[in-house]
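Data availability (excerpt). All sequences and predicted token strings are deposited with the supplementary files. A representative entry, AT-rich interactive domain-containing protein 3, is shown inline so that the format can be inspected without opening the archive.
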Amino acid sequence: GDWTYEEQFKQLYELDGDPKRKEFLDDLFSFMQKRGTPVNRIPIMAKQVLDLFMLYVLVTEKGGLVEVINKKLWREITKGLNLPTSITSAAFTLRTQYMKYLYPYECEKRGLSSPNELQAAIDSNRREGRRQSFGGSLFAYSPGGAHGMLSS
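Structure token line:
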């Protein structure tokens, strides 16, 4: 169904009782607000709100976004999020959502990689030419703004 903005946020906060969840989400949302790219909708995946908290925890545990792309660890991430592994585009979707909602935060808080390294990882991943190829413009990540790039 089509949830309201408030319901999506409420769901995200209530996915489990981990006190770190609220702490993380509050921090993430205020960080994104401050950098001028407020999160005004929660991505939906497999008909449920995408758990940004768990996604961040799983990806950073594995060394961050660039590591996950380079080592192709998306299947584990998908499992960790309890998403059906049958979603063929899961890796692409998760990567895209992570880049939009979480990568700036990862850079700021953890410094696990730089946007240049991310671009290189995406390029080499794309060069392998598996499955469909996606246009380069989608990945123009600039710390300053380009937040309109993935709004659907």
